[in-house]
Amino acid sequence: MIPDTYYLSSSSILVSRPPSTVSRLPSLVSRLPSPVSRLPSPVSGLPIRPNTTLFYTLFTTHSYPMPAGQLKYKGWKKLIKEYPDNSVTEAIPGICQFGARIGFKGVRSSITIHPNLSSAFEYPDVVTAEIEAEVNKNRLRKYCSYNTLPGYFIASPLGLTDKSDGTKRRIHHLSYPPNDANSINSGIPELYGSISYSSITEAISAI
């Protein structure tokens, strides 16, 4: 691995892949109620479905090429055409076109480069090949020197873990440092990843 080469990924501090994600759009989805309230949809009058409340702006527009294998914009646009909540029908096509933000709300004040895990140094060729493959698919942006990095940037450690077939899988340790409020995962509010389920009463009512 080249020590003075840096990469910006979808899980770095600049949450979405392009650097333009440092700007935040006005929320397109703030008018939805919380999933607990089950208030009627502002469009259809029907109750809000569980886990469709959007707590932050899910995408930022940009002009960079999207990686291979992204969601198909036209297909999703067709599938959600009849969905009654405008906030959701605006968010999903945006994710298809521009990728999804992960909702990082932590400190953005400096450049932090964490050392890779020991497993990355044991198999450097594997890690390098994985990175090169991601760059070729437009999933990473390459920075050739420290001086070209954005003003705030966190490089979480890379490592390798064993797969069931005996090969290695690259991991990105976004909870590093452990038990530290400055890790990427610690900067994402728990609410953003919470899941609520319909109650038994609601299930019976739907029958």
Question: In words, what does this structure look like?
Answer:
By secondary structure, this protein is α+β, with helices and mostly antiparallel strands. It has two domains: 6-14 and 105-187, no CATH class; 17-100, no CATH class. The chain is built from five helices and six strands. It has helices at residues 73-79, 86-98, 118-122, 124-136, 200-206, and strands at 6-8, 111-113, 141-143, 153-155, 158-162, 168-172. The strands form three sheets. It has a two-stranded antiparallel ribbon. Helix 1 (73-79) runs antiparallel to helix 2 (86-98). The longest helix has 13 residues, at 86-98. Mean pLDDT is 77; it is low at 1-39.
List the helices and strands and how they pair.
Layout: E1 6-8, H1 73-79, H2 86-98, E2 111-113, H3 118-122, H4 124-136, E3 141-143, E4 153-155, E5 158-162, E6 168-172, H5 200-206
Parallel strand pairs: 2-4
Antiparallel strand pairs: 1-3, 5-6
Mean pLDDT: 77
**Biggest sheet, in brief?**
2 strands, antiparallel
Number of discrete domains? 2
Strand order of the largest sheet: 1-3
Whole-Å distance between the termini?
58 Å
Could you state the order of secondary-structure elements as H and E? EHHEHHEEEEH
Identify low-pLDDT runs: 1-39
Molecular shape: globular
Report Rg: 20 Å
Helix content: 10-25%
